[in-house]
Specification:
125 residues, alpha/beta, 2,3-Dihydroxybiphenyl 1,2-Dioxygenase, domain 1, 2 helices, 8 strands, 22% helix
Length: 125
């Protein structure tokens, strides 16, 4: 149902470095690029993510309670995406591990602009 998710950025070059690394781990790359907007994903694939300078030219801000969830293929990729995020200017919001009923395994992090993301996988009990 979701076509793509967009996060605001005040420094598109910095965001590009962060999301290029995340996208590479997930097996996709840039699929659209303009001076104020970059989208990562795969045409006809799962929902992608984009970083953009706000159209109204005001500062990009973080939505309280807003989060982008990235579907990882397994626990190992959850760990890898968390490591990549931190190595590329992101900050930790919750180390990889089981959440809730143990069937949901996730790591939480923020991009360099403060947008919250997680990498997750569903695991068998």
């Amino acid at each position: 149902m979701i076509g793509y998710v967009t996060v605001g950025s005040n420094d598109l070059e910095r965001s590009a470095k962060f999301y290029d690394a995340i996208a590479a781990e997930m097996g996709v790359g840039r699929m659209m690029e303009f001076p104020t907007f970059i989208a990562w994903g795969e045409q006809g694939g799962a929902a992608g993510i984009a970083a953009t300078k706000p159209f109204d030219e005001n500062q990009a801000t973080v939505g309280n309670g807003t989060m982008v969830a990235l579907a990882a293929k397994d626990k190992e990729q959850v760990h890898k995406l968390h490591e990549i995020a931190l190595a590329n200017g992101g900050s930790d919001e919750g180390a990889p591990g089981p959440r809730g009923d143990e069937g949901f395994y996730a790591a939480y992090f923020r991009d360099p602009d403060g947008n919250k993301l997680n990498a997750f996988t569903m695991v068998s009990a």
